[in-house]
Amino acid sequence: MSKSRKKKGKWKPAIEKAKLFLKSKKKESFLLFFLSLFMILCLSIVYAQKMHDRQNALNKSSDSLLKTSSSVTEQGKWTNTLHTDRKEDEFLNPRPFIDRYNLVDIRQDGNPLDSVGGRIYQELMERESADLAKIYDSTGDTPEHTAKLLGLKRSAILGRYNPQASGQSPDQKNSWAIPYFKNIHYRYYNGDGKEIQDSSNVKDILAMASVYTYQHNYLDEERFRAIVNELYTKSHSYTLSIGPVYYDQGCIHKDAKEEMLAEEAANTAAPVGGETKASDESKAESTSEKSSETATDSKANQNTNATKENKQAQESKQAQESKQTQETKSNQENSQRSSAGEGGESSSESKSMTEQSEKSSENRENSASQNAELSASNLPKESKVPKETTGTKAEQKANSIQEQKKLPKNYCPGHVDLTIKITVVGFDDENGLRNIQLDSIKDLEEQDQKPGSRWHGWDDYTIAAVKRLKEQDWFKDYGLSISSVEKKSPLTEEEISAYMKDLPEDLSEERKALIHFALSSVGKVPYFYGGKAGVKGLEGNHFGATISSSDYKGRNRKGLDCSGFVQWAYWSSVDRSLDFASSTQELIGKGQKIKRSELKAGDLIIQPSGESHVVVFIKWTKDGKMLAVHENGTAGNISVDEVQANYPYYRSILP
After folding, report:
1. How much is the pLDDT for 173?
2. Contacts by 453-456, CB closer than 8 A, 24 or more apart
3. Which of 191, 228, 232, 248 could form a disulfide with 431 if both were Cys (CB 3.0 to 4.6 A apart)?
4. What distance in Å separates the CA atoms of residue 247 and residue 581, rounded to the nearest whole number?
5. If DSSP codes are grouped into helix, strand and coil, which group holds residue 651?
6. Closest CA to 473 of 109, 76, 92
């Protein structure tokens, strides 16, 4: 007998018994069968509903999601506690949700910065502040040095003879370099080349890295850090460009008040197609300027100014009256084509930054050379004065004033603007962060291709998680803000004394009092956009207190902005309120107009446009930079720094 037959005979009794059971228990067997089917159907429905709820959870509002998340505790409390009163039984690594920022591994003190995401957040914010400080400091460089860095010829920044600028001679056209940038334009662009207002993608990067590591290993701090740093490096870039030389209606004879009024007039009545200057430390205003550098049609403007100067220099020559009439007629026609404001901006021709950057250096050289030739030919002969190498300072100043008076009233030595194009790639850009190839995750690509992997790329689910995460209020939800990373420490008495010893012995007591007060304030007053003091001194102003509202960069510690610091320092130290000036624009009209070479400790250096700023001068360093004290927006507090600060306005307030 074969083995198959033996097996069949072995199971035959069992099969017969099953048949007898089914025949005798028909109702019970059918009931059991249908009950099994019903259970399978119910489990399928429950499982499908669970997956559907998971997918739709990301579409709920942030507040609703927080209320329904049982594993996330109240704001600022990032430890889940077991049912016991013993502190040692708390566990510190609850698994987060995909659209909650990674704050695992937080310590017992509950400080959000002492966690995986908190530490990396702090590092990235400090890196961004340092990079912005580097960019902003480059704006304080001279046009001559910036042009050299950009590979432009010197002729690109040559204007007319300027008796107020040191080192210029009326006989040497090559010395007529424009000493500073009149306006500084900050332009922010996203990954698609579109102009934007936001200047930071920190939240985009952190949210993206948090979601990615959640799907892999949310406790891998080094992987998190590597992704964040690589994304930041590959998503930031900036370029500088210098606009063409232009001229206004005359600026040599203006005093501090007149300059302030001229600046205000330019702000309130900017020409069509021109740009609106920022009157305060307003990031929003400086980055929302929709038009790029604009300049008066150079040929028309040169003819205009040249004709005016020729007319003044040759009034006594009757033989050339007819020629002057023709030139005046031509000048009027040119004026109709180009209505220039104080900044020399034209409504008839608005040139984009891209077009300007594409201009060859040869064209710039020709344009600048033409300006120089026109200026030289029409410069009044009596304007030549000996160099300020002999005589007392009073005599030198008198000679300078006398020389300026001999120039035409509408004389302008020329201006030039700087444009900074900053590219910041965001998550939502078509050519955004998701398209950046990362070396830091290449070793995971093979693992991600396996069927059991949780990572399926940037699909609807993970994209929605990043968007939900970066839209949240990180200070309210996680206790994280830009103010959290401030690390400026106050100066010691020894450090303050060292600075004071370097001041000139003949410096006035008022200036010494101002510098001492400003140095004593270092590290004690956070930066806050629009912040002004309510009373003199530190007491009563509640600097450093957390407030519900935040400034345009998310800082929420009560403090001062740069002009607020200057006004408060003068008010508190020497009882000079400066008429409670509320902006850098208003500070232009205070005190006496001075040259850069005449700066003394306590004087102000002001940049009212672009990233507007003001610093208090202390002394010159060995390498030719300024040592200044200021409310430092990038560092987040009052600080003492070496700065270029080659700004257009220098003001002396104190004797």
Report:
1. 93
2. 454/215, 454/216, 455/212, 455/215, 455/216
3. 191
4. 29
5. strand
6. 76
Cα separation of 221 and 212, whole Å? Answer: 12
Q: What pLDDT, in 10s, does the model give residues 17-45?
A: 767 766 666 666 667 777 778 888 888 88
Radius of gyration of the chain (CA): 35
Kindly list the distances between the CA atom of residue 361 and the CA atoms of 149, 177, 364, 415, in Å, as whole numbers in the listed order: 13, 16, 5, 18
540: left (phi over 0), alpha (psi -120 to 50) or beta: left
pLDDT the model gives residue 527: 93
Closest among 75, 109, 70, 69 to 92, alpha carbons compared: 109
Q: Calculate ∠ Cα 468-548-128, nearest 5°.
A: 60
CA distance 366 to 362: 6
Do 489 and 519 touch, CB atoms closer than 8 A?
no
3-state DSSP assignment of residue 196: strand
3-state secondary structure 105-159: CCCCCCCCCCCHHHHHHHHHHHHHHHHHHHHHHHCCCCHHHHHHHCCCCHHHHEC
Do 560 and 631 meet the contact criterion of CB atoms below 8 Å apart?
A: yes
Phi, psi (deg, nearest 5) at residue 357: -70, -25
Number of Cβ within a 10 Å radius of residue 180: 22
**Structure tokens that stand for 194 in this block:** 């579109």
Positions of the chain with pLDDT under 50: 1, 58-94, 270-391, 398
Can you give the pLDDT at residue 317? 40
Largest CA distance in the chain: 144
pLDDT at 485: 79
pLDDT of residue 291: 31
Nearest residue to 478 via CA among 158, 224, 137, 116: 116
- Rounded to two decimals, the pTM is 0.67
Say if residues 204 and 427 touch (Cβ distance below 8 Å). yes
